[in-house]
Amino acid sequence: MKQIFLVPFLALAATAALAGPYDQPYTQVMTERKFPSADPNVIPVIVNRIDDVTVYDRYGTIAPGMHQVTVDVPPRNGYHTATQVTFPLETKACQRYYVAARLKSRTLQEWEPFIRFEEQLKDCSTKFNLAQGK
């Protein structure tokens, strides 16, 4: 008799385990490399971790909400070590955020991350029937 009750529970648990980040409204955080900046003090970063989870692919796909994003500025001319900064980021559903770094000076290692621009993820908005511009 106990086996009858166990089967639906295991099926439900297996379904929940297979649910991925794209099964609900999501957001993405990634480095901005498509459009080089005319400002020499704006450089690309590497998105390293989001909420202490390492980002292995190009897109850090996460649920909307408040997150801690850790980014690196890779070694560059005159510097042999990368530098790392963690900053808070409030994300909205079906948006992609492009992160870059603004150097305080070309001769110093000091910089701050910023969202260079964001765009709507149209496939996400369509899939989850979210209004344009939200």
- The helix-and-strand class reads alpha+beta
Shape, please? Answer: elongated
Q: Uncertain runs with pLDDT below 50, 5 residues or more? A: 12-16
Strand content: 35-45%
Number of domains: 1
The major pleated sheet works out as: 5 strands, mixed
The number of helical elements comes to: 2
Backbone CA Rg? 19 Å
Helical percent range? 10-25%
> Number of DSSP strands?
9
Polypeptide structure, described:
This protein is an alpha+beta fold and 134 residues long. The chain has one domain. The protein is built from 2 helices and 9 strands; from the N terminus they run αβββββββββα. The strands form 2 sheets. Strands 1, 2, 5, 8 and 9 form a 5-stranded mixed β-sheet that branches. It is elongated and about 50 Å long. The protein starts with a helix and ends in a 7-residue tail after the last helix. Residues 12-16 have low confidence and may be disordered.
Helices and strands in order, then pairings?
Elements: H1 2-18, E1 27-31, E2 42-44, E3 46-50, E4 53-54, E5 60-62, E6 65-73, E7 83-91, E8 95-103, E9 111-120, H2 122-127
Summarize it.
By secondary structure, the protein is of the alpha+beta class.
State the main characteristics.
9 strands; 4-stranded antiparallel beta sheet; alpha+beta; 134 residues; elongated; 17% helix; 5-stranded mixed beta sheet
